[in-house]
Design a protein that fits this description.
By secondary structure, this protein is mostly beta strands. It has one domain: Immunoglobulin-like (Sandwich). It is 15% helix and 60% strand. A 6-stranded antiparallel beta sheet has the order 1-2-6-5-4-3, with no helix packed on it.
Length: 81
């Protein structure tokens, strides 16, 4: 049983599926490919199946890792293409 739990934990930790969490004043993106554009009113993120455009005011990148990105600001629109 210990081996099964360890395998499930590794799968959870090493998740490679694109995920986006939209909260008040922030957008957390996991497993993106690259940032195509960034300024204080628009961020364009490329992921495996397309792009995400985040539009708003005073946008900043608070966390920038190889696989995770946290954008803060007044989020007005999140579009998937």
């Amino acid at each position: 049983m210990g081996d099964i739990m360890l395998k499930d934990l590794r799968t959870y930790i090493l998740e490679n599926e694109f995920k986006i969490n939209i909260l008040t004043g922030k957008v957390d993106i996991v497993n993106y490919i690259e940032i195509d554009h960034f300024d204080d009113t628009k961020v364009i993120i490329r992921y495996e199946k397309g792009i995400v455009k985040i539009k708003g005011e005073n946008l900043t990148i608070s966390k920038l890792l190889n696989d995770e990105l946290l954008i803060l600001g007044k989020i007005k629109v999140v579009e998937f293409e």
